[in-house]
From TrEMBL:
CDD domains per record: HisF (cd04731)
Pathway: Amino-acid biosynthesis; L-histidine biosynthesis; L-histidine from 5-phospho-alpha-D-ribose 1-diphosphate: step 5/9
Chemical reaction(s) catalysed: 5-[(5-phospho-1-deoxy-D-ribulos-1-ylimino)methylamino]-1-(5-phospho-beta-D-ribosyl)imidazole-4-carboxamide + L-glutamine = D-erythro-1-(imidazol-4-yl)glycerol 3-phosphate + 5-amino-1-(5-phospho-beta-D-ribosyl)imidazole-4-carboxamide + L-glutamate + H(+)
Record protein name field: Imidazole glycerol phosphate synthase subunit HisF
Any Gene Ontology biological process: L-histidine biosynthetic process
UniProt-recorded Gene Ontology molecular function terms: imidazoleglycerol-phosphate synthase activity; lyase activity
UniProt keyword annotations, A-Z: Amino-acid biosynthesis, Cytoplasm, Histidine biosynthesis, Lyase
Active site: residue positions: D11, D130
UniProt key word DNA repair: no
Gene name of the encoded protein: hisF
Originating organism: Streptococcus minor
């Protein structure tokens, strides 16, 4: 059985790690390279960096950050934000990223997923999906840092990205983001029911119990968290110990 993964997420804005609630009210929590090294030494399985305000002007900064992180950590890490072309992805992979995440650009141009998967292999292509529940009980896909409703049905979009070649889905519940109230189990189960690629659960981790719960009640292979790790509320070692005690396969 595949071991379950603990994945700290570092949202990067203007070269700094930030954290907010429901994608707003951002607080500065540190330097991305220092944070990456600290998480690596703490025993995380992977890292995710999302440049949440990426523009072409900032991409050089992101590439340099990726290089520095690759020199410091020796676990897989994913970089996303502002990736609009095969060339953009190539730059991040060459700088040392193991995987590259696309979100808004994939919605605008689904062919980007196929092109990147054909060029670099599906294992390098992560599609990040931000979902929010609508009044009718369905989930819609949001883009632009969670500010814009695309009107797309989340379940149909998840199916589509895998058909196009995505090797992994990073699924964030916007309703749960930063609330520390637990993962959106219903949304995760619904998406896991229609795709056959690994899913990383994101949005809502408030303690170790929430991470154990998402592994016990859904088929996700990774749990992503930010606030609880950034602010030292829970340690990765404590979380993994609790997971093992709960009978979950984990790399200690």
């Amino acid at each position: 059985m595949l071991k379950k993964r603990i994945i700290p997420c570092l949202d990067v804005k203007d070269g700094r790690v930030v954290k907010g609630i429901n994608f707003i009210n951002l607080t500065d929590v540190g330097d991305p390279v220092d944070s990456a090294r600290a998480y690596y030494e703490a025993g995380c399985d992977e890292l995710v960096f999302l440049d949440i305000t990426a523009t072409h002007e900032e991409r050089d900064t992101t590439v340099e950050m990726v290089r520095q992180v690759a020199d410091q950590v020796f676990i897989p890490f994913t970089v996303g934000g502002g990736i609009r072309s095969v060339d953009d992805m190539n730059k991040m992979l060459k700088a040392g990223a193991d995987k590259v995440a696309v979100n808004s650009s994939a919605v605008t141009n689904p062919q980007l997923i196929k092109d990147c998967a054909e060029k670099f292999g599906s294992q390098c292509v992560v599609v990040a999906i931000d979902g929010r529940k609508e009044l009718d009980g369905t989930w819609h896909v949001y883009v632009a840092g969670g500010r814009k409703d695309t009107g797309k049905d989340l379940i149909e979009w998840a199916r589509e990205v895998v058909r196009l070649g995505a090797g992994e889905i990073l699924l964030t519940s916007m309703d749960k983001d930063g609330t520390k109230s637990g993962f959106d189990l219903d949304m995760l189960k619904a998406v896991a029911g229609v795709v056959d690629v690994p899913i990383i659960a994101s949005g809502g981790a408030g303690n170790s119990d929430h991470i154990i719960e998402v592994f016990q009640k859904t088929p996700v292979t990774g749990a992503l968290a930010a606030s609880i790790f950034h602010f030292g509320e829970v340690s990765i070692a404590q979380t993994k110990q609790a997971m093992q005690e709960a009978g979950i396969e984990v790399r200690l």
